[in-house]
Amino acid sequence: MPESTEHVEGANTSPICPLNEDIEDEDVGGANTTPMCPPNEDVKDEDVESGKTTSICPPKVLRVLVAIAVLIAGLIVGALVVGLLAGFNGYWKGKSECVKDPSANCPFSKAAVAADSEKCSQIGRDILQKGGSAVDAAIAALLCTSIINPQCAGIGGGVIFTVMDRSGKVKIINSRETVPSNVNSNLLKSCPKTTEWSMNRWIGVPGEIRGYEAAHRLYGKLPWADLFQPTIKLAREGFPIPYYQGQHIPRIGNTSLRELYLDKNGNLLKTGDTVKFEKLADTLETIANEGPDVFYNGTIAKNLIRDIQDAGGKLTLEDLASYGAKVTDAWNISLGEYRMYFPPPPSGGAILSLILNIMKGYRMNSEPKTTDEKILFYHRYIEALKFANGLKNHTRDPNFSSDKTAKNLTEDSFANRIRSLISSDKTHDPQYYGKNSYLDSIGTTHLSVLAEDGSAVSVTSSINDEFGSNVLSSSTGIILNNHLNDFCGRADNIFHGERPPSNMAPSVLKSQSKTLVIGGSGSEMIPPAVASALMNHLWFGKSLKEAIDTLVVLVDSKSEVKLESKLEKDVVDGLEAKGHKVSKFYNTVNAVEKADSCISAWSDERKKGKAAGY
């Protein structure tokens, strides 16, 4: 809004004029009091002698002044017209694009949230507008995601927060699931069978709520219960099934999940039908009113454990009661003008940093244009991904395994050595890149938050595979994770209390004048997808939208290259000519960026997401 135009004595109140600093005292004190009039050289003596004190300029001067005045008036009118047109354009563009399309040239000015869905982004934004912190907004949006995309995340899973406070200090809160106390010692021998729907043996101790508790204790502003209310209301009253959730419902098979999605005639609900999560609403309301302990020590714990054990799971009340979130410092690397902060093992942050360090050594500052340039760029990138995959088994829980090698993955010297092993003209057999036998999965959600005070949250949450273990706790409405299968291919044994290795890489990048909050979902797709978005945005100069929309390349556990369908055929042919096996997939990345006073946000359209801000 413009400043007030109320008159202030002695001040120039025009919003478009400078102060009249060039008018000297003697000009004011003399007979000529018209600031635009030159000295009265043409005024005849008799005019003075006769006492004429008019400040009107004589005819010759007057004609010049009239011409100048007309010119100035024309310029002012033109400026006003242009300004009004620009103002109306900005207003309507702001109404239609700033609020609804955060990628537009009319960015947010104060804060933004980028979640997997517009509804959850809006809930997070509303929390910020009520005076909530970035963490408050993140928790509220994650709770929303547990019903908008319940196949991806929920309170039966785990979460990793990367939180930057207003001073720039960054902390990690890891509340990934842990191995229960009476886990079968031979569990990992059955890893090849974990792609089957029966996955009750792979349920880890849920950590989501303890993670929310730790984050809220350290950074929360609004009351704990307030963060739950929007989702409780949605879950109890019902809402139309969104497109993305609807695509997964037909795949639930003959599992306990069916009771969530049956209509009164016994038919499965579909996209657009109204769905309610009433049991979950009751559970969330209890947690909101009684606090996190009710989930781990109270009535919810008792009901949850009974349902898990009835389904064949191994969790006990003691497992829940002894669970705790872990707060640590962030790891970081230099990336141009930025420091990039990310979680240490067992997250995928070290893997993401390795990919970026390898690629930055090629010193690319513009997007490859020709077919040959694209083939070489993607070939080198694919090779970097293959080496990164081969090193994933070094990102174990540091409480049970040394993180020395994982720390080395973040060093430029290590990336330089890996880059020297990349041939520009060919790929190699899988064994050239190291051990690479993990299981591929597709779950997870990510959201990015930037608050008015400059604080930021990058947070990734998951129940692992599609609908996790496919075990629904009928008494609580909670869908349980199957995260213990993340050990498959990365470990020969597991220990009680250990957190499984993860691809989650919620990151915050900070420079002198910019903050970038970014992360992804899609399990194995997370590091390559986030790396792709960062390269395209920071190095190739693309907007957040363009960078996230750019096609992504993935290398799976069999060293097969997976490409999005929009990659040009001649580039695919060129990659195959170098020996890469190619197939297709999709992923998602959500990000928020502040550059000086401008904020932009983008939620990946691959998952029908949309950001919200103000």
Would you give an account of this structure?
It is a single chain. The protein has helices at 25-29, 45-49, 59-98, 118-129, 134-148, 208-219, 229-237, 243-248, 278-290, 293-296, 299-310, 317-321, 349-360, 371-390, 404-408, 412-420, 526-539, 544-549, 569-577, and strands at 112-114, 158-164, 170-175, 239-240, 274-275, 326-329, 331-335, 338-342, 445-450, 456-462, 472-473, 478-479, 507-510, 514-521, 553-555, 561-563, 582-583, 588-595, 598-603, 612-613. With 614 residues, the protein is α+β, with helices and mostly antiparallel strands. Among the domains are: 25-75, no CATH class; 112-330 and 442-502 and 513-522 and 596-613, no CATH class. The strands form five sheets. Strands 6-3-2-10-9-1-20 form a seven-stranded antiparallel beta sheet. It is globular. The model is unreliable at 1-66 and 75-103 (pLDDT under 50).
Rounded Rg: 31 Å
The percentage of residues in β strands lies in 5-15%
The percent range for helix content is: 25-40%
Overall pLDDT level = 84
Shape: globular
**Number of DSSP helical runs:** 19
* Main sheet overview: 7 strands, antiparallel
Number of E-type strands: 20
